[in-house]
From TrEMBL:
Residue ranges of every copy of the TXNDC16 second thioredoxin-like domain listed in the record: 1-74
UniProt feature, compositional bias: Acidic residues: 180-199
Protein name: Thioredoxin domain-containing protein 16 isoform X3
Disordered, as annotated region: 179-199, 591-614
Length: 643
């Protein structure tokens, strides 16, 4: 499936479990899976059979990729230079090269021999015809075959092999030896030979024997999907049973089911898109895993948060109420702002947002409602637009329209005017308001603060933060001295990876606490607050002023390392991008009501050819069913999720 995802626009992938078909293809042991490449392009007559090549290596993603790449390479290449200097795709893929040495007098016969060898070694080695007469270097007169290993620095071998089978066995014995050596290396590194080098896949593999409480969720099929989501409020997980991230998130999803057992009216269900692809296509599911919430009479709501238990639980719990909540009296508004109205939800949202408007501000109310719908499941929002709204605006000293932000942990309420503010701006205001002024950085929230694109001023602490240092930094924040930075702190006991970060900055590691400024987004410089100075307002401000003036030296520059494939032939992303550029991508469908979804089911069912002809690359595009106003906000949420 992963190979089909990459190469689906170039080749037709076919899966069969029919024994009769397997027996008709080859005489190999049909108890095991086999992959054949059928060379059908040269075949013009349907009666004529396609030549086929069997992949003899184990069916792993890397082996399939290597196999397909060799099928794309030229069957035979003519060269006229030193074999030591020749490089082809085969060497990049770790396969040897076989040179059939030829001369002008025997060229035609040598070429036929080379083509025959090339077909026999297809997928195992690259075969080249080496023209001895045109060479500037001398090939030993007796040699008729040159063998070049894939390992860098290995000398080429000049051989005398009078039989094609000797050439084949030479290559196959080399490949066999190499596989044995790789297996031994794997055994030395990890006794579990099947463990993936991908961390997510490795986790899934290690937990493969863990008993999952699947009975806490309802498995949906093509027959039961519509009736289930229309009959009750439902959360649906769309996943692929063959995909590692899906299976890892399935465990988190079931953890949520355990926490909600007996406490929620929301039905938790799941659809395996590997089994029910039509269901997933009709629901515009274009990536895995994907979570949607279905409520009667409402459009489905897509989950775009972190793929973890706590974030998904927060999304579900906050969706118990409408967003925004319609507040009908000043007393109810005060209860809302104090946290009493939704006291059981404060553990999931420490900030409540109330938009206050006069009844005539129709456009402003619509924009706020749109923003509230977009932020549904992430923050509690409410709207008040009664005749006596001035009571609230006067009490909190603001003009209408405005936002009232109740920070329940601090017990304070802030006001933000909304003059001529559009929906996307309201989303940004609320999103920024959810950020803490001096947060504790964790693995989960780091992407949110990196999104601000500011240098990080980090206080590393081996435990809880010293209140004296906290007071110093909060004071400078109030005085606006740190507006160009993101001040934060990191508890090494809560986030042990912080110790590895410090070791990358310092050698040896100085005593804690440590104050560090990291300019991640431009230059990568790391500056350390002098360890011989105490952290006071005056010392910290003076140090920051020296930094700004360029009078402080950095202790380290973080390398701008790109995440590149180990070899050009392994650049899967560029392959998919190339495929995308050759095919038009459909526009994202607009969000539909439940009734519209059901009405369209029949139309989509009748025209399955449309679904099948859709380029595979569209599966990589997330069809956001939001207003175009929110494109920038969506990018931020998506970037946070990816990080």
């Amino acid at each position: 499936m992963e190979a089909a995802f990459v190469y689906g626009t170039t080749y037709q992938f076919v899966l069969t479990t029919e024994i009769a078909v397997l027996e008709s293809i080859g005489t190999e042991d049909i108890e095991y899976a086999h992959l054949y490449f059928l060379h059908c392009k040269p075949v013009l007559d349907f009666i004529q059979q396609c030549r086929r090549t069997l992949m003899e290596q184990p069916l792993t993603t890397l082996n399939i990729h290597r196999f397909i790449k060799t099928m794309e390479a030229p069957l035979l290449t003519e060269v006229a230079k030193d074999p030591q200097q020749v490089s082809t795709i085969h060497l990049q893929l770790g396969l040897p090269l076989v040179f059939i040495v030829s001369q002008q007098v025997t060229y035609e016969a040598d070429r036929r021999t080379a083509e025959w060898v090339a077909w026999r070694l297809l997928g195992k080695a690259g075969v080249l015809l080496l023209l001895r007469d045109s060479l500037e270097v001398n090939i030993p007169q007796h040699a008729n075959v040159v063998f070049k290993r894939a390992e860098e620095g290995m000398p080429v071998e000049y051989l005398v092999l009078d039989d094609i089978d000797l050439i084949i066995s030479r290559v196959e014995s080399n490949v066999h030896t190499q596989e044995i050596q790789e297996d031994e290396d794997d055994d030395m590194e990890d006794p579990d030979m099947e463990t993936e080098d991908d961390e997510v896949a490795e986790t899934v593999y290690r937990d493969r024997k863990r008993q999952l409480p699947l009975e806490l969720t309802v498995e949906l099929t093509e027959e039961t999907f519509n009736t289930t989501v229309m009959a009750s409020d439902s959360i649906v997980l769309f996943y692929a049973g063959w995909e590692a991230v899906s299976m890892a998130f399935l465990q988190s999803y079931l953890d949520v089911a355990v926490k909600l057992k007996g406490t929620s009216n929301m039905l938790l269900s799941r659809v395996n898109c590997g089994d029910w692809s039509d269901v997933c296509t009709k629901q515009n599911v274009t990536e895995f895993p994907f979570v949607k919430m279905y409520k009667k009479g409402e459009n489905p709501v897509s989950y775009a948060g972190m793929l973890g238990t706590e974030d998904l639980l927060k999304f579900i719990q906050l969706n118990r109420i409408s967003c925004p909540v319609n507040i009908t009296s000043v007393q109810e508004a005060e209860e809302y702002l104090s946290g009493k109205l939704f006291e059981d939800l404060l553990s999931y949202s420490s900030v409540s947002v109330l938009g206050i408007f006069s009844p005539t501000m129709t456009r402003a109310i619509e924009d706020f409602t749109e923003a509230g719908n977009y932020l549904r499941g992430y923050v509690i929002t409410g709207v008040y637009s009664e005749e006596d709204v001035l009571i609230l605006s006067n009490k909190y000293t603001t003009t209408i329209p405005a936002l009232l932000l109740a920070r329940h942990k601090e017990g304070k309420i802030e006001s933000i005017p909304l003059a001529n503010t559009q929906a996307q701006d309201i989303v940004q205001i609320i999103t920024n308001a959810l950020l803490e002024t001096f947060p504790e950085i964790t693995v989960e929230n780091l992407p949110t603060y990196l999104r601000l694109q500011k240098p990080l001023l980090i206080l590393f602490s081996d435990g809880s933060i010293n209140h004296k240092y906290e007071e110093v930094i909060l004071t400078l924040i109030k005085q606006k001295h740190l507006d160009s930075l993101t001040p934060c702190w990191l508890n090494l006991k809560n986030t042990p990876v912080g110790r590895g970060i410090l070791q990358a900055y310092f050698d040896p590691l100085p005593p804690l606490p440590l104050l560090v400024l990291v300019n991640l987004h431009s230059g990568g410089q790391v500056f350390a607050f002098p360890s011989d100075q105490s952290i006071t307002e005056q010392n910290l401000l003076l140090w920051l002023q020296k930094l700004e003036a360029g009078l402080e030296s950095y202790i380290r520059i973080l390398p701008a390392e790109e995440w590149k494939p180990p070899l050009p032939a392994y650049d899967f992303l560029s392959m998919m991008d190339d495929a995308t550029s050759q095919h038009p991508i459909r526009k994202a469908p607009k969000c539909m009501k439940e009734t519209d979804v059901q009405e369209n089911d029949k139309e989509q069912h009748e025209d399955k050819s449309t679904v099948r002809k859709e380029p595979v690359e569209t599966l990589r595009i997330k069809h956001w069913s939001r207003s175009n106003w929110f494109k920038e906000a969506e990018k931020s949420f998506r970037h946070e999720k990816e990080l």
